[in-house]
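FYI - complex with tryptophanyl-5'AMP, inputs then prediction.
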Amino acid sequence: MSGSRGRVARPDYPPRPAPSAKLATMTEAAAKPAARPSTLPAKPRAFSGIQPSGITHLGNDLGAIRNFVALQNRGVAEGFETIYCIVDYHALTSSHDPEILRLRTLEMAASLIALGLDPDKCTLFVQSHRPEVTELCWLFNTVTPVGWLLRTPTYKEKRANQPDDINHGLLTYPVLQAADIVLWKASLVPIGKDQAPHLELSREIVRAFNARYGETFPEPKAVYTEAPVVLGTDGVKKMSKSVGNTIEILGEPDVIRKQVMSMVTDTQRIMRSDPGRPQVCNVCQMHRHFGADYEEVWEGERTARTGCVDTKKLLAERIIAHYAPARETYRELMADLPRLRRTLEEGAERIRPIAEATMAEVRERMGLR
Ligand code: TYM
């Protein structure tokens, strides 16, 4: 993709105006020497977002949140900024109950802090508390061909999931996501693999904007964990609340037990005495993340020394134990909602100057004001 930098990569992008047209063509714009010093941050910034879905599941943690925390700590050590956002505007494309949205936003904030985000080390805020992002989204809409959005696989997926509610927000969802990231001129984006199409689109939007208005934004890059795709309890689809195949890591121990015990294992292991295939068994794969001795667990399966039920029971207990401190912190945080709200307000306020500076630059570049 690097070869398309400075040019528009997709064939269906609106044709460039003829050389006689008043607007400078992209070739002309690209040929002009940079008229202004770079406004890109000296050090890369990290940004990611998460929907206030009401459930924090194992896929969220193994696929993304662990990397939110790792980058936060790297940011402190190396002096770069990390910004994490609970995306309530995005949630409105599928959730329409105001009180539930408000509560889930706070629950997600408590979950993220419980799982290791520290508001003194990173910025944690709620998307709608920095509404500049909606202005940037609109401006990005004007450089984004509709065809790019119609082709986005997640749009097709969401249409299928909620056929009676195909609102315009679903289509423009990835444009808002691009604005989310680059409002902060962030270039490191910890996400799971399911978000890869969105990130690719963000990169295209940034290229289209930079080509038309000059180098303004860095191209964001995905940062993946060791488990970029976590399968759900069905062992087939990615873990997702909308599929109902989740393991709720901050749920009550009995809920976790029930969810883990419902997991599909190696479908070819019919009898207890049949040897298992840990490489294809989702339960065995999850053991990787909950104990250095996972190869021993695999060996037990391979030799039929242990049965699938034993392996699942062990996994459930390990997940419960691993997240026990986080579950406790979550409860404490949810017991003091005014404090949690203050933390989020402070987060949004702390990064206000970045948003204002970006928007002032963008408006000026685009001929607004
Ligand atoms: P969301 O809320 O669906 O998921 C949050 C993060 O969890 C990751 N994830 C997974 N990773 C691996 N396996 C899984 N089964 C799994 N399920 C979820 C997701 O990849 C994601 O990183 N559109 C985004 C939110 C968003 C955003 C952004 C992300 C809005 N603006 C800007 C990054 C940058 C979403 O709905 O994530």
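The first strand starts at residue 46 and ends at 50. The first helix runs from residue 26 to 31.
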